[in-house]
Design brief:
This protein is mainly α. The chain has a domain at 109-161. It is 37% helix and 0% strand. The protein has 6 helices and no strands. It has helices at residues 2-18, 69-76, 95-101, 110-125, 138-142, 150-159. The longest helix is centred in the first third of the chain and has 17 residues, at 2-18. The protein is extended and about 90 Å long. The mean pLDDT is 79.
Amino acid sequence: MRMPRAILALTVAAAVAGCSNPGLRDLEPPGQGPDEFSVLPVKPLTEPQDYAFLPAPTPGGGNLTDPNPNADAVLALGGNAAALNPNTSVPSSDAALVTASSRYGVPTNTRQVVQEEDDAFRKRRGRWTGLRLFPVDRYAQVYERQSIDPFQETEAARGAGIETPSSPPANE
């Protein structure tokens, strides 16, 4: 009688241990912890050209040594960093795009609505994905119906006469 209990205990322990590493596609947030990517080095201090004409201090505002990686990247790529300011109006080159995309109105809570709908979708589709003895890719299970088979799409494009580049074999 002791041997079947021991086998049962070992089987349960192995099944629980197999579920411990969800991998990179875990759909749940990893928990509270520091974000190592939010730590930015400050720019080096520089001496002003003329101490008589210093800018007025701005309590709570930014200064020249504060990092601004988005603006720095835009400037490095030859863009206009002033366009990143959310308080500025839409550039004239993008006015037609903004007008066309907002012709039916722009809801202010789009991100929250999408988040709630996705949570409900994952809850509906992922109801039975937790009942597995071995680790599986939950992301692929939940979004399986929405995934695209690239080889099937390539064949469909080729059948329609569209030139497509070669792709790796399907079994690799």
